[in-house]
């Protein structure tokens, strides 16, 4: 496979209001670089007109690769699908909402030219987000930094530029519950931040409600730390200590002729034991549930359609391109498939 200079991978879910502006800005940046490139859009089971719009772009522009997944797999797996399909020597990951500016790409390329394998955007400011969103995001990054054995840069998302060798290592990691912004630092290789101001969403609404944010945080913590299991052990030890002290107090009171009366202490002890057991079981269940899903070894994603221009099979080895329309994948496409 002849690698292009640059691939830009964009996972999309119900982004019909953004697609045209996103395509315009990405194309303008790529053309200004004077390098070979491709724009890989991955439709993650959208319910609006996102896929028909991507089909039209792929039919009109040979630099566009449009991918449609069989259903909604989630942001991280849709992103993984695009990373598996892309053919660039350098790969930019960017979300479709245009909160991360594509115009930062030239500066990121310049930083990578100094010998880096990963250049990630680090947010100085987050415009258009509520105080609750900013506060919970700050709390999450501090929490995951404290729990993880791998240093995860704070205030970063998936917006980053990667080399092909860093991407190849990332694609060799088979986790189903993926936390890519933590997996990339785990890889190693020279990495550096480039600060920027995150903009308001160009149009539409966020596709990450509180429920998904909590699930994403759990995926991150369970993927990069076993400290919650240790915490459960400490809770158990603490409960045992409290129980021992209460028992000693009860015996001492009985010995001096002033026994503890009523059922309140008993109820408190039972409630304390029960809550600690349920907490420990819940933490253990989160880890075991992920292990169970991983052992089923199902493919990470399934591609329904792939639209891409390919070299014409002519005898004169011309560089003309033809459009591969509705390339159907009846079976599952695993992470390490040979494209």
From TrEMBL:
Any single GO molecular-function term of the entry would be:
glycosyltransferase activity
Identify the main location.
membrane
Q: Is-annotated flag, keyword Ribonucleoprotein?
A: no
Compartments reported by the entry: Cell membrane
* Key words, A-Z: Cell membrane, Glycosyltransferase, Membrane, Transferase, Transmembrane, Transmembrane helix
Give the top-rank taxon of the lineage listed in the UniProt record for this protein. Answer: Bacteria
Q: Which residues form the Glycosyltransferase 2-like domain?
A: 7-168
Instruction: Give the residue spans that cross the bilayer.
Output: 229-251, 263-284
Q: Name one GO cellular component term.
A: plasma membrane
Topology relative to the membrane: Multi-pass membrane protein
This protein's record includes keyword Zinc? no
Family stated for the protein in its record: Belongs to the glycosyltransferase 2 family. GtrB subfamily.
> What is the name attached to this protein's record?
Glycosyl transferase
Where does this protein come from, organism-wise? Answer: Singulisphaera acidiphila (strain ATCC BAA-1392 / DSM 18658 / VKM B-2454 / MOB10)
């Amino acid at each position: 496979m002849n690698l292009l200079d640059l691939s830009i991978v964009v996972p999309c879910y119900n982004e019909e209001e953004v697609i045209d502006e996103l395509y315009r800005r990405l194309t303008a940046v790529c053309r200004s670089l004077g390098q070979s490139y491709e724009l890989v859009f991955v439709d993650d089971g959208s319910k609006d007109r996102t896929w028909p719009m991507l089909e039209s772009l792929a039919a009109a522009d040979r630099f566009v690769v449009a991918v449609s997944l069989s259903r909604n797999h989630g942001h991280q797996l849709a992103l993984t699908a695009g990373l598996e399909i892309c053919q660039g020597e350098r790969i930019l990951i960017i979300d479709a909402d245009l909160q991360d500016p594509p115009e930062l790409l030239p500066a990121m390329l310049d930083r990578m030219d100094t010998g880096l394998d990963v250049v990630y955007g680090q947010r100085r400011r987050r415009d258009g987000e509520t105080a609750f969103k900013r506060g919970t995001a700050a709390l999450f990054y501090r929490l995951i930094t404290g729990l993880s054995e791998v240093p995860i840069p704070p205030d970063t998302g998936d917006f980053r530029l990667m080399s092909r060798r860093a991407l190849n290592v990332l694609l060799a990691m088979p986790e189903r519950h993926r936390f890519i912004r933590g997996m990339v630092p785990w890889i190693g290789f020279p990495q550096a931040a480039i600060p920027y101001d995150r903009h308001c969403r160009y149009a539409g609404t966020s596709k990450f409600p509180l429920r998904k944010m909590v699930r994403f945080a759990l995926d991150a913590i369970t993927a990069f730390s076993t400290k919650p299991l240790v915490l459960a052990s400490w809770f158990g030890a603490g409960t045992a200590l409290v129980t021992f002290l209460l028992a000693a107090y009860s015996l001492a009171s009985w010995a001096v002729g002033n026994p503890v009366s009523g059922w309140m202490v008993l109820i408190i002890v039972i409630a304390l034991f029960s809550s600690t057991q349920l907490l420990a079981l819940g933490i253990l269940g989160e880890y075991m549930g992920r292990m169970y899903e991983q052992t089923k070894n199902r493919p990470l994603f399934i591609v329904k359609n792939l639209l891409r221009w390919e070299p014409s099979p002519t005898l004169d080895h011309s560089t003309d391109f033809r459009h591969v329309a509705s390339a159907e994948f009846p079976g599952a496409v695993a992470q390490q498939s040979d494209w």
